[in-house]
Amino acid sequence: MGTQPPIDVRDMAIVHRTFREGYTEAARLVRAAAEPSRARVEFLADHVDFSIKMLHIHHEGEDELLYPKLIERLPEQAPMTEDVEHEHQLIVTALDAAAAKCAAWRDTPSGDTATDLATSLDALNAELQRHLDDEENKIVPLAATSLTQDEWDEIGEHAVAKIPAKQRPIAFGMTLDPLDADERAYMKRTLPAPVRLLYPLLIERPWKKYAATLRNGA
Question: Closest Cα partner for 156 from 84, 81, 60?
Answer without folding.
Answer: 60
